[in-house]
Every structure is written in structure tokens, then in C-alpha cells.
Here is the input.
Amino acid sequence: MGVDKKQKTPFERLLETGLTYWVRSRCKSIGSLKIIIKGLSLGFPNNQVSDINLIAKEVNFKDIHFEQLNINAELIKFKLNLMNMSDGVLSIKDDFKIEGRLSMSSKDINLLLSSLTWLSLKEWIISSFFSQQTNVNSQIKNNLLILKAFDSNNNKKNLEEKVFSLQSKSGNLLFRDINSCYEKDFPIEDSIFIKDTYFSGDTVNFLIESTVKA
Here is the structure.
């Protein structure tokens, strides 16, 4: 956690603390978090940061787990809560746009697939590509996503395995079965646009644009 300057003024440290609190309050958990602030403009009541970079690891956001986030944002307007800090040091005034990279490991994907919050995603995968199985596990290997669907957690009855490439299509995530060439895109919520996706080692990376609500 830190501002990318050799020496920080008291206000910069205060702002860093406030932004850190705000980011963490939006997530269920974050392992490590670094914030790099640039383009700080002060002028009551219109304080704003014109350029900010956020790097976080081991993130749980709404039961979606990420190995790492590397996010850039521009023009974040905020107000300081110096008289009442019960809701944090600062408050974000307006919605703002972000872009960057989200990285997920096989472990992150499996946590997502086992989450009751995202049961609809598991059901969509099974109904779109498999038979009547009830569970799905994932593995990332050779720049591909391997999904294994089965009925029982104990002995994996009726195991069925398929291999997918992942691509972006009109902002959504496209699953393509490399053996049958059958493909189908999973619709992402309107506030998130997937620009590209690629594999690196044992992770899959998503380049995204999104609007963050204040």
C-alpha cells in the first residue's frame, strides 16, 4: 500500500488511507493492496484524482475470487469526511470508469463455480455444454480451460470432460469447445465490458472496462 512518491504530504497519506478504506469496504476480502495516486487536484468542494492505479492480490469481490487485479481509473471526484468519519475518511461523489486486468487461477474459478451466489453460472455451463451433471471443476492447462462435469463429489460419477478456449465477443465471455467447435457466450452484466482475454501460465486474464458506482 503506498503512493508512488518518495515523500508524501499529510494530506496524501490521508487520501491514501481513505481510498484504501473505500476499496476494502467494497470487497469481502483483499490480501494485499497498493494504490498509486497521480494528478491530485484540491479545491473545496471539488477534490479529484485524475489518475490512479490500483494493484491488489487475493481479492474476493462479491464471491468472485481474483488472484490479482491491476486497475487504472481517471477522474475520481471525492469529498473528505473530516467532521464525521463514521463512513470513512472520504466519500466518492460520482460514478467513474475503470479499465485494467483481472487474473484468475483454477482455484479462483473453482471457488466461483462452488459459490451459491453464482449458482447461475454453473447451471449455465452445465446446460450449455454438458448432460445432466450437477458439479463442475476447472483446470487451466496449455492456454486452455478444462472443465470436468460430474454427479457426485465423492467418486465423480458420470464424469465428462471438455476443453475450451476463451475469447471476448461484444463485451461478453465466449466459451468455445475446441473439439466440437460449438461456442456460446455468457452474458456479462451491462456495467462490465470484456475487451480481451488471454492465458498466462496457470491463470486466465481478462482485460476489462467498467463503471464503478459511487
In short: The longest helix spans residues 10-25. The longest strand covers residues 47-61.
